[in-house]
TrEMBL record:
<protein>
    <recommendedName>
        <fullName>BioF2-like acetyltransferase domain-containing protein</fullName>
    </recommendedName>
</protein>
<dbReference type="InterPro" id="IPR038740">
    <property type="entry name" value="BioF2-like_GNAT_dom"/>
</dbReference>
<feature type="domain" description="BioF2-like acetyltransferase">
    <location>
        <begin position="176"/>
        <end position="312"/>
    </location>
</feature>
<dbReference type="InterPro" id="IPR016181">
    <property type="entry name" value="Acyl_CoA_acyltransferase"/>
</dbReference>
<dbReference type="Pfam" id="PF13480">
    <property type="entry name" value="Acetyltransf_6"/>
</dbReference>
Length: 328
């Protein structure tokens, strides 16, 4: 068993990389196309890129992307958990735009990967290395605990299982179910149209502006850097689906959704609440996300982080996410 290092994903065969990701059931954030898009158009400041491939003979059995980041705190959560790391460079897997950390692997390789990460972090001059957004209690979480690394809570992400749309509605409370149906009816009466599009047919310039505006409303300025965001989404290709919600031609909500083998990720969205009519454009977008996930045959809806009240009301459950950092 040996660990190979590269500072660019372009040097790593996409078929080798994706075979490990697929066999491990890792989410879309680990696909070669996603990692490549992030290297080409990083959505946060990255000081250096690091990619690890573990091989037995010539066969890849594990892969891991990592990023040297000094300002690795776009949503402020990391430094709330690790105030002692403020302003210090850290080699982290993955970026904050991935909310479900994994080590795609077909064998127990974490100790070897941790050693490789620590050595690489030291070469980079980092003071910390580790993982963000590790789901508490999953395989990676347990392996990190066995390695003696303590976890600190960051935030929660939200998810639910899916079968049919009617079954999804039936899982909601009577009030929530009535609200969804009423919002659908009112939006139709208000002249709202909904379209699901591939990225190369979507109005990414409009969508970018809406996502940036929405993020700034929640004091997350810079979370979606305009030009980089559009390039990143374009580079995702068929990993991404775009939902546009328009009223009389005006874009009032948009979502960029990602898919892997079993999951539909409502990865990011933008919403303009200055609409005509008594309806919620965000509610329209969310309902269409559920319907699209079901049409695509995905069994899990991943709702991302934040907006706890809405997500609880609409049937999603929390997955506790931790940061696990090692001081070098």
């Amino acid at each position: 068993m040996r660990v190979e290092f590269s500072n660019t994903i372009r040097e790593i065969d996409s078929a080798d990389w994706d075979a490990v990701v697929r066999d491990a059931g890792a989410p879309v954030f680990y696909r070669h196309a996603y990692v490549s898009a992030y290297e080409q158009s990083p959505l946060t400041t990255v000081d250096a890129f690091a990619y690890f491939v573990v091989r037995e003979g010539d066969k890849p059995i594990a892969v891991l992307p990592a990023y040297l980041q000094t300002a690795a705190n776009p949503l402020r959560r990391l430094h709330e958990a690790y105030p002692e790391a403020v302003g210090q460079p850290a080699l982290l897997s993955h970026t904050w735009h991935c909310y479900d950390a994994h080590v795609p692997a077909a064998a127990e390789v974490l100790p070897r990967l941790l050693d490789a990460m620590i050595r690489t972090a030291s070469i980079f001059g980092a003071r910390w290395c580790g993982f963000m957004n590790v789901q508490r209690g999953n395989e990676l979480s347990r392996a990190l605990r066995r390695a003696g690394l303590p976890a600190r809570h960051l935030t929660d992400r939200w998810a639910t299982g899916l079968t049919t749309y009617e079954h999804y509605l039936a899982s909601l409370s009577l009030r929530a179910r009535a609200n969804v149906r009423r919002n659908d009816r009112r939006s139709t009466e208000a002249g709202v149209t909904i379209e699901a599009l591939p990225v190369d047919h979507a109005a990414l310039d409009e969508i970018t502006l809406l996502c940036v505006k929405t993020a700034s409303r929640f004091e997350n300025n810079g979370y979606y850097p305009g030009e980089a965001f559009a390039r990143f989404v374009t580079a995702l290709g068929d990993l991404a689906h775009v939902i546009e919600v328009r009223q009389h031609g005006k874009l009032v909500a948009a979502g960029v959704c990602l898919t892997d083998a079993t999951r539909f990720h409502t990865w990011t969205c933008g919403v303009d609440y200055a609409v005509d009519g008594n309806y919620s454009p965000y509610g329209v977008l969310f309902a269409e996300s559920v319907r699209l996930a079901i049409r695509l045959g995905k069994s899990t809806l991943e709702g991302g982080r934040g907006n706890e009240a809405f997500k609880r009301r609409h049937g999603l459950s929390p997955r506790h996410l931790d940061a696990v950092l090692h001081r070098i």
